[in-house]
Amino acid sequence: MTADLVPTILSGGAGTRLWPVSREALPKPFMKMPDGRTLLRKTYDRAAVLPGAGPAWIVTNRDYYFLSRDELADARSGDRTRFLLEPTGRNTAPAILLAALAVADAHGDDACLLVLPADHLIDNEPAFAACVAQAQVLAANGWLTTFGITAKTPATGYGYIRGGDAIDGGGRAVRQFVEKPDLARAQQYVEDGNYLWNSGMFCFRAKDMLQAFESLKPALYQAGVACWEASRAKAVGGDSIELVRESFDACESISIDYAIFERAPRVAVVPGDLGWSDVGAWNEIAGQYAGDAQGNRAASEAIFVDSTGCFVHSHDRLVATLGLQDVYVVDTPDALLVLDKNRAQDVKKIVEQVRARGGDKHTYHVTVSRPWGTYTLLQEAPGFKIKRIEVKAGRALSLQMHYHRSEHWIVVSGTAKVVNGEQEFLVRTNESTYIPAGTRHRLENPGKMPLVMIEVQSGSYLGEDDIVRFQDLYGRVAG
């Protein structure tokens, strides 16, 4: 089946500069913007309305599959969107190579891929659509095409593209890719007028990208082909293909810029003034909210007194600032970040310290998403842990066992179907059950409304890794 345009969305990355909201288990693509949509959803919606756009492919880590599927559920009704699931992160070149192989297999090697990171913002969508149309023409003529953003300010956080000769039908040949510059050189680029910000968005025919890999990175190409063949052979239908870990790990970890675009002979750039941002730091998030007369902005309830240029992003409580200038406050239930807005690019240094201290605040929020729903840590101390568990309608936890802890389940709302040892029974609102350590058990929501319950854990060790799965609907049982 051929397709005029196949949106291919790369969704992943830890987003460490947006900690503590972005964490490894819930990264930047799942952050909600002022309109209530996540960055992933906004990217999907932007691509879906393009003329000739066919079913999308989402390339993401297998751990984000259910999050992604749920996030796009109401938008995907009947559209045949597919997911390509990576077992580990190997940078953008293997991701794009496998996506090109998948698209060529599903839609034909003349299919045109539009590769979009899931965590960018574009304010001027009509201009974006016009640039995509221009890129499709270039791609149809064999050009590997990228999108360059008009550089209006000397930004040091982006790579640059130096444009060359104009191409018949639009766009320019790429003369040079340039690494992130210092401020003085960035100022020179803006004054020169031939330099564009490198957006990390691409457009090309599947066959042209595959030929480029075969010519320029033959070892990676062969590893990618072997991975695709092995993964396709193991696919069991449905909307996802999980890449086989052993063969995917054989693919070189390298960016698409280094592997292909900086070396290929026919590379074009389409310039555009798109209102684009890669949402790389809290400055970009703050800029999405309206400011008051003193330049203060808030994503939640806030009071600013004698303050200028401040930003507040809070979870569920009022934040007030007094006599502050250019200070950002980012508040979550278990971590509070206060920073000088001019140091927003350095938040990743804090994440390095958080990781070095141990614990999991760089990975998890207090509320953790799972394929079946969520759990929220309410209280924890030596010997016990209390969680609020919410199970989506029709979903179930794995059949599992714990060595070191017992669990007491109290249903708050809904009805639970419980396996407890050799017994299977229903637990209704205001009822409970006790699971001793070492007992096989499972929790399921057989109803049509969310199941909410409180879990009290007791034992000598309460780590999340004390779990043995015997059966699981979500592929989490080791082969």
Structural class: alpha/beta
Provide the CATH superfamily of the largest domain. Spore Coat Polysaccharide Biosynthesis Protein SpsA, Chain A
- Oligomerization category of the chains in this entry: single chain
Q: Helicity level, as a percent range?
A: 10-25%
Number of helices: 11
Mean pLDDT: 94
Q: How much is the radius of gyration in Å? A: 24 Å
- Low-confidence regions: none
Large-scale geometry: globular
Q: What do these coordinates show?
A:
The protein is an alpha/beta fold and 479 residues long. It folds into three domains: 272 residues, Spore Coat Polysaccharide Biosynthesis Protein SpsA, Chain A, CATH 3.90.550; 62 residues, no CATH class; 105 residues, Jelly Rolls. The chain contains eleven helices and 29 strands. It has a six-stranded antiparallel β-sheet, with no helix packed on it. A hairpin with a 5-residue loop joins strand 7 and strand 8. Helix 3 crosses helix 6 and helix 6 crosses helix 7.
